[in-house]
Amino acid sequence: MKCSVCGNEIKAGSLYCDNCGEDVHIVPDFDAEAEQAYAESIRHMTDELWESGRSKQAGDTTLPEDDTKDEEKRPESIKDKGVLKAHLKNHRLVFGGYALITVLVIFSIVFYNIAMSDGIQESRARTAINSGEYDLAASIYERLLDKNPGNAQYMLGLASAFKGSGNDDAYERTLWEVINLEGIARADKYTAYDRLFVLYASKGDYQGIADFLASSEDVVLKTQFSSFLGPEVKFSIEGGYYETPQLLRLTSDTEGVEIYYSTDGEQPTTESECYGVPILIDEGETTVMAFAVDKRGVIGERVSAEYHVTAQE
Questions:
Q1: Which of 28, 1, 22 is nearest to 13 (CA)?
Q2: Would you call 231 helix, strand, or coil by DSSP?
């Protein structure tokens, strides 16, 4: 291959001329003359097809005139079929290159959008948790929540990441945030409660769970987590007016409990009388208060009843 400027022989694989420093053009430069010749050739072919069609329609059987003169008028480059072919080839290469780049860009955009979809990202976060990469999982869930604030599922996933990393404070805080979400599905809400209660139970705070459930007005919640409730004391007779002394028995459906009670109207404590035998409700007014303590040390709700016994003369 020779240099187009100085004519010096260029070594194979070299990117410039050793003699004059001219860059080697792998793809030939744009040839304005060849471009014009190409356009004239197309136009000439179109004219011939048009004239041929007209001749056939008119029944003209004469041969077309010799176009040698027209040939002589054409640029010399049109006679060089090699130049024209090379020019066309360059156009095809350039077009093909642009087409390939366009396809790659579109594919990259589509692949990126798929890879960054919420479902794929959540799957990545779950995989990270299963493999013990809790910080990675937390960062993914935080990005998802930036896009989808208040999403209970993502918040529960973030809580799991905090739990795995040993950050119990963030774990507890996130679960409470889930519970306090407006319009949250009951299943998600109770999932958060379940995890909270398990956390408190692992710390031995059974009393905190029982107190919370006792103060809640959610009957379904109390029913679902009744095992965390404190033991309940039952009175064998209702409070009220009686004409004869009564024997009051205190029981509980929870096994292994201890029941403490008082009969003087004062709140009983674990230092009060421990129930063992029926309590005699004698003549006069008697207020009985009682509560039970289970094996976990959880204190149940205090219950009371007033008895009025009037002896008949």
A1: 1
A2: coil
**More confident of the two residues 276 and 53:** 276
- Bigger pLDDT: 86 or 122? 122
CA distance 292 to 183: 37
Which residue matches tokens 């009393």? 207
pTM (two decimals)? 0.56
CA dihedral 224, 230, 236, 240 (to 10 degrees): -100
Other Cβ atoms less than 10 A from the Cβ of 231: the count is 23
Tell me the C-alpha to C-alpha distance, in Å, between residue 190 and each of 40, 124, 156, 209, 292.
81, 25, 11, 14, 27
CATH of 234-309, one of 3.60.40.10, 2.40.50.100, 2.60.40.10, 3.40.50.10350: 2.60.40.10
Per the rule left: phi > 0, alpha: psi between -120 and 50, beta: everything else, 239 is beta
pLDDT band at 128 (very low <50, low <70, confident <90, very high): very high
